[in-house]
Amino acid sequence: MEPHLIITDIDGTLAVDHQHVSPRTVAALNRAMDAGSRFFVATGRMYALAKIMADQVGPRAGVIGSNGAVYDFAGKRVHHLLGEEALRAVNAVTESHGLTAFYFSDETVYYTKTPPTFVEDALRVFEPSGLTVEVQAVGSIDNLLRHVGEITNGIVISPRDAFGLKRSMSELDASGLLHLSASNSDNMELIPKGVDKSTAITELQKLSGIPPERTIVFGDGMNDRGMLRKAGISVAMGNAVPAVKEIARYQTASNTEDGIALFLERYFDWKQD
């Protein structure tokens, strides 16, 4: 088969429970890489959390982390940063609505305002066992800006204040300083202006020489729509939200039913041993 570029979201797509990839899916992805294809996870997670999931597939698996703000290619790591203006705007808007923003570098989480316990617990769901992510309370925007050269993206999680989240998203969107997305109704993802998962995929298509018609993308959430549109072979998981199923060319089984493996086995017409 000709080499393909295979991209999968993690939560609700590659992972069965936010932390593990099934053996059948691991086997299918490695079979594709054995045949010359390239594989990347694509996620809103910070690089360190994305890498530990990619490593479950194997050492050849690449990472598109921070919603496209950081990715691997040919042994190098490419970064896009939120920047000072965006960080100041996010800090001001979220504080005015009593919300906490978490800001990510490749390996560290920063925040200025101590979050409620239930918000921190929601963030910890994505931390795999065996990996402790460094979390730093910096206390002020000035201290946060000392890390401006490393912060790629962020997230606001608000499971108990939908109105405050909606207002914050509206005000930040009007600022034009950054790109906003959401992987769930209770969060707002903070991404550098002009960047999303699709940006990284476009860059990887150029770098690898693999065209859109041989790009396979799997996704389930609203923040996957951009990258699905960049793929000639776009696949919605069975558990995907309706808006994702509407734009995907194909559908497969859910993340808990080996949907990725099932699609690859059928698409490449692999014979079972």
Instruction: Say what oligomer this is.
Output: single chain
Considering DSSP H and I runs of 4 or more, what fraction of the residues is helical? 25-40%
Beta-strand share of residues: 15-25%
Classify the secondary structure makeup into a structural class: alpha/beta
Shape: globular
Termini Cα gap: 18 Å
Q: What is the number of domains?
A: 2
Give the C-level CATH assignment of the largest domain.
Alpha Beta
Number of helices: 10
CATH topology category name of the largest domain:
Rossmann fold
- Strands of the widest sheet, in order across it, are 5-4-3-2-1-12-13-14
**Can you tell me the residue ranges where pLDDT is under 50 for at least 5 consecutive residues?**
none
CATH superfamily of the largest domain: HAD superfamily/HAD-like
Largest sheet: 8 strands, mixed
Number of E strands: 14
**Spatial extent as radius of gyration:** 18 Å
Explained architecture:
The protein has 2 domains: 147 residues, Rossmann fold, CATH 3.40.50.1000; 109 residues, 2-Layer Sandwich (Hypothetical Protein, Haloacid Dehalogenase-like Hydrolase, Chain: A, domain 2), CATH 3.30.1240. It is globular, with a radius of gyration of 18 Å. The chain has 273 residues and is of the alpha/beta class. The protein is 34% helix and 22% strand. Helix 3 packs antiparallel against helix 6. The model has no long low-confidence stretch (mean pLDDT 91). The strands form 2 sheets. Strands 5-4-3-2-1-12-13-14 form an 8-stranded mixed β-sheet, with helices on both faces. A 6-stranded mixed β-sheet has the order 8-7-6-9-11-10.
